[in-house]
From TrEMBL, chain A:
<dbReference type="InterPro" id="IPR043429">
    <property type="entry name" value="ArtM/GltK/GlnP/TcyL/YhdX-like"/>
</dbReference>
<keyword id="KW-0813">Transport</keyword>
<keyword id="KW-1133">Transmembrane helix</keyword>
<feature type="transmembrane region" description="Helical">
    <location>
        <begin position="229"/>
        <end position="249"/>
    </location>
</feature>
<comment type="similarity">
    <text>Belongs to the binding-protein-dependent transport system permease family. HisMQ subfamily.</text>
</comment>
<dbReference type="InterPro" id="IPR035906">
    <property type="entry name" value="MetI-like_sf"/>
</dbReference>
<feature type="transmembrane region" description="Helical">
    <location>
        <begin position="12"/>
        <end position="31"/>
    </location>
</feature>
<feature type="transmembrane region" description="Helical">
    <location>
        <begin position="62"/>
        <end position="82"/>
    </location>
</feature>
<dbReference type="InterPro" id="IPR000515">
    <property type="entry name" value="MetI-like"/>
</dbReference>
UniProtKB/TrEMBL annotation, chain B:
<protein>
    <submittedName>
        <fullName>Peptide ABC transporter ATP-binding protein</fullName>
    </submittedName>
</protein>
<keyword id="KW-0067">ATP-binding</keyword>
<keyword id="KW-0813">Transport</keyword>
<dbReference type="InterPro" id="IPR030679">
    <property type="entry name" value="ABC_ATPase_HisP-typ"/>
</dbReference>
<feature type="domain" description="ABC transporter">
    <location>
        <begin position="6"/>
        <end position="240"/>
    </location>
</feature>
<dbReference type="GO" id="GO:0005524">
    <property type="term" value="F:ATP binding"/>
</dbReference>
<dbReference type="InterPro" id="IPR003439">
    <property type="entry name" value="ABC_transporter-like_ATP-bd"/>
</dbReference>
<dbReference type="InterPro" id="IPR003593">
    <property type="entry name" value="AAA+_ATPase"/>
</dbReference>
<dbReference type="InterPro" id="IPR017871">
    <property type="entry name" value="ABC_transporter-like_CS"/>
</dbReference>
Length: 265, 255
């Protein structure tokens, strides 16, 4: 007799588990564990990296990301409002900006800001301004769309109530709509912060002094003087120290706001 | 000041090719309660929303307390502070607690000080019987409580006239009475009110004048007892028969 549907589903599940175990065993068998140990777990290199990996590199990554995020958020809000403006040229400018900076690699923006703008305008930004502008310019393009969606997600009745109480369009936007929009978009904005954290690694393209190193640059520098790949492992873990809690925060905020996003199997 | 609070003449409004209001004349005397009734799609909510220019009229003239709102040079934000509005869906500011809902416009628009604004807010919360909810968030309140807070919010601006756009239509039946009670009390205190409603009992007992609208026109208007108790127009009779005794009539469109 043919198997029942439920039985078949059960066997299918078992076969999947078996397959996964087999793949894991094969990989474990093929890997050269001695090599991996020496290449990634050189404890002397690890020891040498501390405390600078934390006090300089991790700290700078956080500072650069925060600067970029703050500037990007402000610029993104302006772009979102332009995109919703009744003045058509504002909408065009915002659309062009967003499409352009979402469409090119962030690395190009860094190069342009670090080398192109100083050439073209005869101005030299300091390191913090460059990073803030570069990360912010790229982040703003992504955040603008998120913020616009958030603003449009605020029920129309909220604006009508505000206007009926005598608030001007701008006043209603600032006092009523934007605060509610930000509650709605807090989870996606947190994700944006995670992306920016990783994008801050692109600063390596700019010449940095030793105390300006962020995690990736620090890792690469240590790597060049190290007999192993251990520095990469260490800075990778450092990124996770930042990004994992942000990921949890994002999901927590989403649950708390009763987000309808159900994880898809 | 004149005895006339709201004067609407020749009001027309269309959305695209759809004519919603086809020439409306309404006069509301100071201190009067005027109820607007009629089937959905008759334009009664649009009419109400034109009175504070939430909808921009295409033609006609609207004068509220001597200020012509349809004048292009009018300061509409200033004019709206004198026209309170209560919505079907309450529209409390969901990120602010009850007290802040009542003070935010007082502070930002009327530029009242914090203490004064709070005193006025608490006084009006007391009027609607919800003083103890001052620190609650809107989401923690029942629909009826939210609507009473919305009324208190509008009252906190010291309006000359209050507009109610189906204030009880979104409420559970057992909560309707609380809101109507507050409205009746307001009427007794002499507030000028323009009310779009399906509550015939309320209209009959509280309204000084009832307006029946259908198809973008005013079909019939007059004292509540006459329009509701003894309607002259066929369409009014039909509508009231359906509303007052809904189980004893066939489908409204026998086509």
């Amino acid at each position: 007799m043919a198997l029942s549907k439920r039985k078949r589903a059960e066997y299918f599940r078992y076969s999947q588990y078996t397959l996964l175990v087999v793949i894991a065993v094969v990989i474990a068998f093929l890997a050269d564990w001695e090599q991996i140990r020496t290449a990634f777990f050189n404890f002397k290199t690890m020891g040498d990296m501390f405390p600078n990996v934390i006090t300089i590199a991790l700290k700078n990554t956080l500072i650069y990301t925060a600067l970029g995020f703050a500037f990007g958020l402000a610029l993104g809000l302006v772009l979102a409002l332009m995109k919703l403006s009744s003045i058509a040229p504002y909408r065009w400018i915002a659309t062009i900006y967003i499409e352009f900076f979402r469409g090119i690699p962030a690395l190009l923006v860094f190069i342009g800001l670090a080398f192109g703008v100083p050439l073209a305008f005869q101005i030299q930004f300091d390191i913090y301004s460059t990073v803030m502008l570069a990360l912010g310019i790229v982040g703003a393009a992504y955040m603008a769309e998120t913020i616009r969606a958030g603003i449009q997600a605020v029920p129309k009745g909220q604006v009508e109530a505000a206007r009926s109480l005598g608030m001007s369009q701008g006043r209603a936007m600032i006092t009523i709509v934007i605060p509610q929009a930000f509650r709605i978009i807090l989870p996606p904005l947190t994700n944006e912060l995670i992306l920016l954290t990783k994008d801050s690694s692109l600063i390596y393209i700019i010449g940095l002094a030793r105390d300006q190193y962020e995690l990736t640059k620090f890792g690469r520098e240590t790597l060049s003087r190290s007999p192993s790949l251990t520095p990469i492992l260490v800075v990778g873990l450092c990124y996770l120290i930042i990004t994992l809690p942000l990921g949890y925060l994002s999901r927590y905020l989403e649950r708390r706001s009763g987000g309808k996003k159900v994880s898809v199997l | 000041m004149s005895e006339i609070s709201v004067e609407i003449t020749g009001l027309k409004k269309s959305f695209g090719s759809l004519d919603v209001l086809k020439g409306i004349d309404v006069t509301v005397n100071r201190g009067d309660v005027v109820c607007i009734i009629g089937p959905s799609g008759s334009g009664k909510s649009t009419l109400l929303r034109c009175v504070n220019l939430l909808e921009e009229p295409n033609d006609g003239k609207i004068v509220v307390n001597g200020v012509e709102l349809t004048d292009p040079d009018v300061d509409i934000d200033l004019a709206r502070t004198k026209i309170g509005m209560v919505f079907q869906s309450f529209n409390l500011f969901s990120h602010l607690n009850v007290l802040a809902n009542l003070t935010v416009a007082q502070r930002k628009v009327l530029k009242r000080g914090e203490k004064e604004a709070q005193e006025i807010a608490l006084r009006n919360l007391d009027r609607v019987g919800l003083k103890e909810k001052a620190n609650s968030m809107p989401a923690q309140l029942s629909g009826g409580q939210q609507q009473r807070v919305a009324i208190a919010r509008a009252l906190s601006m010291d309006p000359d006239v209050m507009l109610f756009d189906e204030p009880t239509s979104a409420l559970d039946p057992e909560l309707v009475g609380d809101v109507l009670g507050v409205m009746r009390q307001l009427a007794d205190e002499g507030m000028t009110m323009l009310v779009v409603t399906h509550e015939m009992q309320f209209a009959r007992e509280v309204a000084d004048k009832v307006i029946f609208m259908d198809g973008g026109y005013i079909v019939e208007e007059g004292p509540a007892a006459e329009v509701i108790g003894n309607p002259q127009e066929e369409r009014t009779q039909e509508f009231l028969a359906r509303v007052l005794d809904p189980t004893h009539h066939g489908p409204s469109d026998p086509a």
